[in-house]
Amino acid sequence: MKIQRLMMNSFRKFLLASMCLVFFACNGKQQTGTGMLPDYAVVEVQPDSVVLSSSYPATIRGRQDVEIRPNVSGFITKLSVDEGAVVRKGQTLFIIDPVQYEEAVNVARAAVNVAESAVATAQLTVDNKRELAKKNIISNYDLQMAENTLASQQATLAQARAQLVNAEKNLSYTQVTSPSDGVVGTIPFRVGALVSPSMTTPLTTVSDISEMYVYFSMTEKQLLDLIRQDGSSNGILEKMPMVGLALADGSLYPERGKIETISGVIDQSTGAVSVRAAFKNPQHLLRSGGTGSIKIPSVLPSAIIIPQKATYEMQDKKFVYVVQADSKVKNTEIQVFNLDDGKNYIVTSGLNPGDRLVVEGVGTLREGMQIHPISPEQAAAKLKAMTQPAGEKGE
What we know:
There is one protein chain. This protein is α+β, with helices and mostly antiparallel strands. The protein folds into four domains: 37-50 and 301-387, conserved putative lor/sdh protein from methanococcus maripaludis s2 fold (Beta Barrel); 54-62 and 206-300, Efflux pump adaptor protein, beta barrel domain (Elongation Factor Tu (Ef-tu), domain 3), CATH 2.40.30.170; 70-96 and 176-201, CATH 2.40.50.100; 98-173, Orthogonal Bundle (Helix Hairpins), CATH 1.10.287. 34% of the residues lie in helices and 33% in strands. The chain has seven helices and 19 strands. The strands form two sheets. The protein has a 15-stranded mixed sheet that branches. It has a four-stranded antiparallel sheet with strand order 6-5-3-8.
């Protein structure tokens, strides 16, 4: 009986061990099934038209910035405008003490009167000498001397009149006027200041801001790329799109501008060329001396855009994981466009339309790993469900 019981116990242990082995084997098969593979968000890449914008730091200048300088010396007696005032051509800006110039005009006018009297007297003398010469009362020598005296007095009169004109011009220069329409800049000299034509600092600057010039630089390589595309520098200007202007506060200027000139000389110190764009300024929002960024748009008709989080770097190269037909991932090197908006990459090579790309959790993947592809929306819903408090799940 003992032997029979021992045999029964051994059989039961063997049967239990066999059942455990079967259970773990079946469980292992389920672990390798599709339902237990890790979920990863996957998207199918498709080409799309993309508008890119190249940004270049820029400086803003008025179409015409005129330095206002005095033509005569003297003390400023009146400021007719203030800084920032909008002025018209010919409007008085400053008045320089005119007293000495008024006196100079009076002296020059008196000299003209004296010279005119001397000419008149000399003319009478010549007329009288001619009558006497006809009657042979005087010699031709006396007549010639009288005519020479008349010519000398006439020259003196011409000189006096020129001095009067010069004095009157100097007097007019005591009213410093604007040479063009524009806006008055900084005024460093006030009433009582002594100014002169030899001074290095201008009285002020009048900027014509009805249209603004925006200057920026382009590298030699960028210029060569444009020339190769369009054939010549003239072709570049004709085919250049309208450009935008980002202001110093980051806002976009409402008017669009046109690139008008590209410098023909490359700056040896910077390796760049100067480019000028013109912008209308009807609201006078732009002011000379301001800064901003020129935005040059360009269109890529069929570009593949992927999120930056779908990539990883290795030895200064960018890679992504592409999902194969058997749901295994393959690491693939890609090349991206040099523009970077901080969120997406524009892929220039390495991916084809229709490729399935892992867009989340790429740091946990390995070459040849098998996954369960789901959409980004499903991944977001799953994450939301996992992060919800227990009470909210029950509801």
